[in-house]
Structures are given as C-alpha cells and as structure tokens.
Amino acid sequence: MTSPEAPPEPSPRHWARTLRLLWTVSPAHMLGVVVTTVLTALLPAAAVQLTTQAVQNVADAVAGDDTAGRAALGAGILLATVSLAGHLCSTAQGYLEALLQYRMANGINTRIMEKAVRLRLEHFEDSATYDSLQLANREAAYRPYQLFTQLIAVLSSAVTLVSVAAVLLSWDPWVALAVLCAPIPAVGAGMFYSRITWRVENERAADRRRTTYLQYLVTNDRTYKETRLFGLGGFFLDRYRDLLGRFYGVDRSVARRQSTANALLGLVSVAATSGAVLFAITSTIDSGDIGRLAGYMAAVTVVQGSAQALFSGFGELYEHNLFLGNLFSFLDIPERGVTEGTRPFPARLTRGIEFRDVSFTYPGSADPVLDGFDLTLPAGRCVALVGQNGAGKTTIVKLLSRLYEPDGGTILIDGHPVQEYDLDDLRANIGVIFQDFVQYEESARANIGYAKVDALDDEDGIRRAAAQADATGFLDRLPQGLDTQLGRWFEGGRQLSGGQWQKVALARAFLRDAPVVVLDEPTAAIDAAAEAEIFEKLREISGQATTLLIAHRFSTVRVADHIVVMEQGRVLEQGTHVQLMERDGTYAELFRLQAAGYLDEPVPEAT
C-alpha cells in the first residue's frame, strides 16, 4: 500500500464516528463519564475562591478580627468538602472510563472482524489489504477510546479554564491573556510532529507486518522443524533485529527533534507564568492584600495548567484523527456486491455443472488463467482435472464456489447460472477440501463439524464422515476421542501427522453430504493403502454426488469416471483413463512418466 505524499487534514467525521461508536457500545457509561468530568472540572474554581477567603480571613484574624477566625475555619471546612467531592468524582470517572474502554476495544475489534468476514477473497490476495489491516489493528485497541478521553479532557480543561480565568481576568486581563496564549507555540510544534509520526507509521506498515511474520516463523510449531534444521532461527532473528533497529533509528530522530522544539517553545509558557507570579508579588507589596495574592497565584497556576492541557488536547485530537483515518480506511474498504438470486440449490443434481466459454484473470495480473474454458461435469459422476501447476485447476473451484466471479462466460448448475442461486445455499451445498486446507486448533469434533456448524452435536454424522475419510481409527485412540484438543497451541493438545490432518479435512468435506463434492489434492499426504480405501468409499459417494477431483497422483485420477487434461487455462484432452491412454497424448505421457518412477524403470517412448 502506497503512503500519500502528506497526511490528510484530520476530519471531524472521525470524531463523529467515534462518538457514535461509543454511544452504540455503552450510552450509560458515556454519559456518566461526561457528567463526572464536568463536576470535577468545576471544583477548582470553587477551590480558588475558598482559598482566597481562607487566607484573607486568617490574615484578618491575626490582625485582631474576632469573627474572621470562625470564617477562616468555615472556609477551610468547605475546602475539605470540595477536595472530598473531587476525589469521589475522580474515582467514579476512572471506574466509568475503565468500563467504557473495555467495551469500546471489544466493539472496535468486533467491527474489524465483521469487516474481514464481508471482504472477498481478492482482498486477501492483495498485500494492500494486509497493510491496511495491520494499521487498523494498531489503532483499534486504544485510539478510539483515546479520542474520547481527550475530548473529555479538553472539555474538562475548558470548563476549568473558563471558570478560573474569569477570576483572573477580573484582577488583570493582560496577565490572564499572556498565561492563556503561552502554550500555543508548543502545541503547534506538537501537531507538526504528529503529522511526521503518522507518515512514518504508514510508510513502515509493510515492514511492521514483516516483523510479525518473522515472529511467527520462529515461534510456531508448524515452522519449527524446517527453521531449526535449516538453521534459520538466527537468520530470522537478525532480520527481526535489523527491522526494529531501523524503526528505533527513525523514532529516535523524530523524538529528539520534537523534544528540542518542546524544550525551546516551552520556555514561552515558563516565562509567562513566572512573569504573572512576579507581577502578583509586586502588586501585593503595594496593596498589602495577602488573600488576593494567594488566590491570584493559585488562579495563575490553574489557568496555566488548564490552558496547557486545553491546547495540548487539541494537538492530541489532531493526532488521534490522523491515526483514526487508518482504522476507518480499513472499515471503509469498498465491498463489491455479489449478484445472487433466490433459487434454492437442488438436493441432487440432475443435469450437472457446465463451464461455458469462461474466462478469468486475477486482479492485478495481465495474463488470463482461464480463456474460453469449457467443461461439463455430468450429474452424479466423478470428473478429474489434471495438468501442470498454474493450469487453472484450483481457479475453477474458486469460480464454482463464487469466491471469484468470472470475467466472461457462464457457469451453469442444472441449467441455471450460478448467480440465480442463493449464495449461502450454494456454498452450503458444496463439500470441499482445498490443497491448503485449514488445521483448526480446536477439538477433533469441531475440526470435522465446522463443515456444518449447526450440526456440531451430530455424533452419528461426524462419526460417519470420519469413517468415510478413514479417520475413525486414530480419532478413537485420542485421549478424549472426538473431544480431544488438536494441535499444540492450547493446553492438552495432541498433534496429528500430515496424513491424519488431511483425513480430518476429508471428513469435514464429507460431513455435508453435499450434492457437489470438490476435492483438491485430497490424498497428497496419505499413504497408498489408505488412499485406496478412501477412494473405494468415494466411489460410493460419487453415485449420488457430482464430484470434481483435482490431483497430480494418477492412482488417484484413475478412480474418476471422466478425466480432463488442462493446459494454460484450456482443455487439452479429455476422456476415460482407457481412452486417454489409447490416444497416447499428454495424459498417457504423464501417466507413463509417473508409473516409471514407481517401478524404477525407464520411461517408455510414445508409439
């Protein structure tokens, strides 16, 4: 993903969207935070007035005024009451903010997952999506809530500033103005460096993802064997350190320049506050008003702190808006609509599946994977696809299941275009195992049952699917049977072999008892004896289901009723195993080549 030349101006709509999210997540907590913040912000003005009265009354009492002592004591009691009220309001505010933060983080992370569920496969085959997701995840945990708390802090500072500045303005408007404006230069510098930080983080999004990937490579059981045997651990660690070192070098440079600017520009605020205090002291020497001096100095301190917090708050709001743009950029990724109808998927196909003059090119590529592709899968028959890698075999599966849409041509199921079928119903009626099937770090039951999540408790169905995939034997030997945790990521997990994982994935495909079964290299990790048993069961299934089989192993392919040889997105030849061998074309050549490898014999030349 390419970073823009300069960050965009922060948009108030980010504030509005964040506040709407907060309101949706927990309106009661949000209102509670606002109320306690306003109450807490009003108390310093009362404290300044009471301090002035208390000090003046003490001075009068020392001078001999009998009533002033009691007044000073009353002012002191009120000051203690204000302090207690501030403590209680702050405690309540902190409690409500904590609850709101938890709810907000959960809500944002849920929305990111909801968005990911709605995105199409083409998004996840584009690195820009991963850059956007990485940036969004960095902001999700805290940035929206920080925007709200900063808004609350600005509100609090503004209320305190207005209430206390009114007292200071009544004493000396020019001093009040100087103290109010002193923090502005430092805030301007902070906004400037916020823009730099935003640009740096966006430009390193891909490298941030790479550090996460390097962590995965050295901390995962699935990569452990290869990375250790090839001695890659230290190599990956060096790359990881190099990336973090580059990040630190840039961050240190930005931090150094920002700290220098803050130190220099902060002198303006120090000078303004010091000048105001000196002015108050000289004025008191002339007037002798000790109480006013105490109140004046307290007011200057409060106004200076509130003004600093207010203007700094605006600077931080600017920064939050910049980074919230990353979160909302992911949430706003356009979702290309999928045309779908209402036609229910048939319980069993009667006419089969037909690809008619289908063409398809992957996004970002100039070379078509399929070009004028024609294929018929008769109902209730097993059709095998063979061909070199890149011939377009797996692409056919993606198009059939509508993970992608063809650029041209038509895909028909029982004579109707796939777009006429309800999308969820279509996908629910395709039992599929992909070559890169998922190994869920869940129970064995879940690993099979995820094919039909509403049937996770269907003991008979899960066991029947396991038997069809020849998985019953090793599953029954697990400590808790189907309820055994698989994998090593969670406590008590048992790791399976590659072939066992593939049988579990096959069982997942069989569980659906779907009218269409798609098997992409279904036995690549399974031994020959187990493969023969599985395909004996597959023949029984194929009597009812329409099956598409993709394989490189010709012992697998021979089980099919019809074999299609693909090359560069087109059908090169097709027929039964016997017909293709008699034709003595590409299929026969590949078959003899593979057979010779098993028999350790020279490859016979074509006749």
Automatic annotation (TrEMBL):
Any Gene Ontology CC annotation: plasma membrane
Keywords recorded for this protein, A-Z: ATP-binding, Cell inner membrane, Cell membrane, Membrane, Nucleotide-binding, Transmembrane, Transmembrane helix, Transport
TM segment ranges: 20-43, 147-168, 174-194, 261-281
Keyword Cell inner membrane in annotation: yes
InterPro entries on file: AAA+_ATPase, ABC1_TM_dom, ABC1_TM_sf, ABC_transporter-like_ATP-bd, ABC_transporter-like_CS, P-loop_NTPase, Type_1_exporter
Chain coiled-coil ranges: none
Location of the protein in the cell: Cell inner membrane
ABC transporter domain location: 353-593
Pfam families listed in its UniProt record: ABC_tran (PF00005)
Topology within the bilayer: Multi-pass membrane protein
GO terms assigned for molecular function: ABC-type oligopeptide transporter activity; ATP binding; ATP hydrolysis activity
Boundaries of every ABC transmembrane type-1 domain copy: 31-319
Top-level taxon of origin: Bacteria
Family: Belongs to the ABC transporter superfamily. Siderophore-Fe(3+) uptake transporter (SIUT) (TC 3.A.1.21) family.
UniProt name for this protein: ABC transporter ATP-binding protein/permease
Gene source species: Streptomyces sp. NBC_00049
